Amino acid sequence: MDLGIRGKRALVCASSKGLGLGCAEALAEAGVDLVMNARGAEALEAEAARLRAEYGVDVQTVACDVTSPEGQGQVIDAAQGVDILVTNAGGPPPGLWSDWDRDDFVKALDANMLTPIALMKALLPGMMDKGWGRVVNITSQSVRAPIPALGLSNAARTGLTGYVAGTARQVAPQGVTINNLLPGIHATDRAVSLDTGVSTQKGISLDEARAQREATIPVRRYGTRQEFGAACAFLCSQHAGFIVGQNILLDGGGTNLTM
Ligand code: NAP
After folding, report:
1. Separation of 116 CA from ligand 1 center, angstroms?
2. In a domain? residue 256
3. What pLDDT score does 193 carry?
4. Is residue 216 domain-shared with residue 104, that is, in the same domain?
5. Per the domain annotation, does 255 fall within a domain?
6. Burial of 7 (C-beta count, 10 Å sphere; 0-12/13-18/19+)
7. Is the pLDDT of residue 190 over 90?
8. Same-domain status, 216 and 120
9. Which of 174, 194, 203, 244 shows the smallest number of beta carbons within 10 Å?
10. What is the mean pLDDT of residues 133-149?
11. Cβ-count burial of 138 within 10 angstroms (0-12 exposed, 13-18 middle, 19+ buried)?
12. Which of 37, 75, 188, 221 to mutate to test the pocket of ligand 1 (most atoms within 8 A of CB)?
């Protein structure tokens, strides 16, 4: 399917690895020029070079922490005039409700709620002026079904979800859509680090830890960054103009819900 977005330009945050990279690559495959971001310059430059070579698109890189005010400024400067924004950053650490104090919440809210809001606030006006734009926020399945140990993430991401629900309806008349993609378990570095924790805690091998988690997912495997990226690219396509303010679960059926 031709996604109809060849020649458009996208900012994809936190995109040197994992789900962000999946989104950047799927957009590059659709002919979209990119601004890619991550803190570590080495992996970022390597992936940017690969996408330029494989898809012939223009790729700019901004190596910085997108959750810091300075980083946001750098990314926003580089991304002026983009047609597509994909927000993403690392998730907050797990813990128990009684572990966290105000500073922990401020950090989590900054990273996973206020950063995507700041990026939208800066880049939506350009899209609205052109009468076309797409925003996809990478959130989590925990927005639909909270994960008890991820209280910081649950709090920040549901806050973003509430903001998007209203804002998506306010910008839709100008041809701009905002939607959220909710990953379930995907085979990224984050999944490996979670499985490593379980294997140490239970005294089992990494393979066993992964097999146990895969058994909890109806499709019996983890999602891939390519599948995730394809869904993102579709939401950014010409065909998705009637999809507004949605929270779309990509979880292999893992979240037990009727709606
Ligand atoms: P990942 O494989 O660890 O990749 C994270 C990417 O983000 C890397 O490119 C990393 O590069 C970059 N990054 C992290 N923090 C950043 C920051 N502050 N500024 C700029 N770049 C940053 O993670 P992932 O699995 O793709 O997860 C992406 C998001 O989805 C996270 O918020 C995660 O909590 C959420 N999620 C993931 C899953 C899953 O199963 N994978 C499930 C639910 C939710 P640098 O380290 O070099 O900055």
Report:
1. 14
2. no
3. 87
4. no
5. no
6. exposed
7. no
8. no
9. 203
10. 96
11. buried
12. 188
Alpha helix locations (H) across the chain? 18-29, 41-55, 69-78, 102-109, 115-130, 151-171, 189-202, 206-214, 225-235
Euclidean distance between CA atoms 12 and 29, whole angstroms: 14
Q: Is the CB of 18 under 6 A from ligand 1?
A: yes
**Residue 69: band (very low, low, confident or very high) from pLDDT cuts 50, 70, 90:** very high
Q: Whole-model pTM?
A: 0.98
Are 179 and 84 in the same domain?
yes
CATH of the domain at 68: 3.40.50.720
CB of 185 within 6 A of ligand 1: the answer is yes
Kindly state whether residues 82 and 113 are assigned to the same domain.
yes
Domain range enclosing 78: 9-184+224-249
Q: Which of 159, 181, 214 is nearest to 19 (CA)?
A: 181
115 pocket-lining for ligand 1 (C-beta < 6 Å): no
Encoded tokens for 72: 């946001």
Number of domains the chain is built from: 2
64 and 160 co-located in one domain: yes
H helix intervals, 131-186:
151-171
Same domain, 153 and 199: no
The response to whether residue 89 sits with its C-beta less than 6 Å from ligand 1 reads: yes
Which sign does the torsion angle of CA 103, 105, 111, 114 carry? negative
Alpha helix positions (H), 98-150 = 102-109, 115-130
pLDDT tens per residue across span 196-232: 988 999 999 999 999 999 999 999 999 999 999 999 9
